[in-house]
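Exam revision sheet. Question 4 asks you to relate a sequence to its structure. Input first:
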Amino acid sequence: MRLQFLGTGGYHPTEQRHTSCVLLPDTGIAFDAGTSFFRVPSRLKTDELDVFLSHAHLDHIIGLTYFIVPLLSGQIKQVRVHGRPQDLDAVQTHLFSKQLFPILPEFDFREIQQSYAVADGGTLTHVPLKHPGGSLGYRIDWPERSLAYLTDTTVDPDYLDFIRGVDVLIHECNFTDDMSQWCETTGHSNTSAVAQLARDAEVGRLYLTHFDPQSDGDDPVGLEIARGIFPESAVAEDLLEIEF
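Answer key, structure tokens:
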């Protein structure tokens, strides 16, 4: 199974990182649609796409406005956008307000369901996360592998069982430990807390993502700190592709 990190930054893009999107190119699934969403059409191997939104903050949805040409040209035949009702309403009412963006791409907006059957015998489920306005975390279980994607959130033991034992955990890590005082205020997470969560949940690999743009660089959160707690930790980079 291939997974591509198309955008690994938070809040706004930088010279190194666009904002959030993770793509499963062979199964036609994307998590979030940040500024990196323009990279999807050239990498997607299906002619349909299911986008699962964590929430409706701009750095996770702005890329939906980039999809008019792929849909009008027929390169991609259908895009289904899944999310909470309030998030879908925000996208349709505000992001695609005629004063801001006069042409609404022909998306199929669908209220999030409890679970989904996905390609290759997988099941996709979700869990609520702690973030201003709320957010959703996602997990996919296939017969021989599993994946979880969680952003934006403050680390919370309430979802530990949801991610327990996944082969790959993708988790936001907006702040370094020396800025951890901002986690509760902003609804984000810091390095040590995420690594401890991965260790306690007994996951296979941890990929840190959604970094504060003020801490841009190859090691924005102190990877050695994370590895000291959970050795199988890595910093996700834009355009990194992994097999799992």
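Marking note for examiners. The chain has one domain: 2-239.
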